[in-house]
Amino acid sequence: VTERRRAFPCFGGIVSVQASGTGRGGLSAPASLVVAEAMLTRLHERLTPFDPGSELSRLNANADEEVPAGAILRRLAAAVRPAGLLSGGLVDATAPGSDPGIRDGWRHVRVDAARGTITRPPGLRIDPCGLAKGLAADLVARRLATHPSFLVDCLGDLRTGGTLGLPREVRVADPFGSAGPVATLTVTGGAAATSGTTRRAGHLIDPRTREPAATGVLQATALAPTGLEAEARAKAALLAGPVAGPRHLPHGGVLVLTDGTVLELPAAQARAALHASDGERRAA
Amino acid sequence: METPPQLPAQRIRRTRRAAAVGSAATLAGAWVVVAGLGRGASPAVGSTAPAGLTTTTSTTAPPAPAPAPEAGETHDDGVLVAPDASTAAPPSTGAASAQSALPPATTRQS
Fold first, then answer.
1. How far apart are CA B33 and CA A11, in angstroms?
2. Are A47 and A55 in contact (CB under 8 A)?
């Protein structure tokens, strides 16, 4: 299978998209990739917190409790609460802004699709961290899903799949920067995301301490059905530490600990089967 | 310091400790606006494909057709927004030795 590829600046780095064959509406791979680039560029324009003119920045600067918002921003806001729930509060895609008294801000973000609005306490900012990249990968993957194969790479947040269901190697980059991967997974569809503390020291804040995360896990990679979920699970696994971290990777993943240990975790289903076979061996 | 869990399904090995933590450069702030849907298309730039992949990089930009919304999708500034992705199937994982006909991908911190 030969995939066409486009790479372009987006989300503060180089994003790439790949696809083979033809997809929805008979679009060739190159044409679909142009659409994908346009989508990603629009998503970034709307969701970047680094541009005061972006829709996200305007929401965060708005003093009203309920603010009209477009579908893209509403979709991001709608992901804040599930990410908090999924991670037991470890992933909080909000920042208290001018009101430091607000805790667990993720509980207070609501979306009203009928009214086309986002509601949150005034002063509470949405700080999407990696969720915006995960959402972008999901939305573009939906666009490319009818191609025989596709890949969306939003700076390491991956969505892969396609109608042929072909396996693809997903390599987990070394957190210490060496050329070779620390692990290689094979997936036929879904998402992978990696969170860590070695590339940008101090950027990942532990909501329990409000200090940079130092849990004994340097890097966590999560597999999940969607990019949003993979992002949330990777962060949760890193913040949970070496003991509880694996519980946040039900679809599989990889943890790299501070002492250099690499833990490759299969999906929970596979773990359960292995546990069962262990029990059978003990019983025998 | 917590100790690593001892789950039977884990494959544990050591990796070399190398560069100083946090020494990598950040790309933050390097984004630029490129023309999008309905406004023409930008050329592809910055190909980062490693040697040996079967990918080819588009260097010309065919016209970008307007995507049509499907059931449940909302059209927002040229982007189709699905209402909820929670119905997506779980990722299918296979053995690392499974034969892959597709170029590999790398997940990394960003």
1. 10
2. yes
Which SS3 state, helix, strand or coil, does residue B89 take?
A: coil
Closest CA to A49 of A39, A41, A57: A57
List Cα–Cα distances, A26 to A32, A34, A140, in angstroms. 10, 14, 17
Tens digits of residue pLDDT in A143-165? 999 999 999 999 989 999 999 99
Whether the model clears a pTM of 0.90, i.e. scores above it, the answer is no
Q: Is B43 helix (H, G, I), strand (E, B) or coil?
A: coil
The alpha helices in chain A, defined as continuous H runs, are: 29-47, 55-61, 71-86, 131-144, 227-244, 268-283
How many other C-beta atoms can be found within 10 angstroms of the C-beta atom of residue B67? Answer: 20
User: Please, which residues bridge with residue A220 across strands?
Assistant: A195, A255
| Token representation of residue A48 | 């970047």
Tally the residues of chain A: 284
Instruction: Write out the two tokens for A108.
Output: 């207070």
pLDDT above 60 (res A258): yes
User: ipTM of the assembly?
Assistant: 0.88
Which DSSP symbol is given to A164? T
Matching residue, tokens 């979920």: A229
Neighbours of A10 (CB within 10 A): 26
Size of interface A-B (CB pairs under 8 A): 361
Of B35, B82, B94, the CB nearest to A139: B82
B69 touches chain A (CB under 8 A): no
- Give me the phi and psi of A269, to 5 degrees please: -60, -45
Residues of B in contact with A186 (CB under 8 A): 93-96, 98, 100
Q: What is residue B91's DSSP assignment?
A: P
CB neighbour list of residue B23: distance below 8 Å, 6 or more residues apart: A177
Q: Report whether A192 contacts A186 (CB < 8 A).
A: no
pLDDT digits (tens, 9 = 90+) for A62-121: 999 999 999 999 999 999 999 999 999 999 999 876 666 778 899 999 999 999 999 999
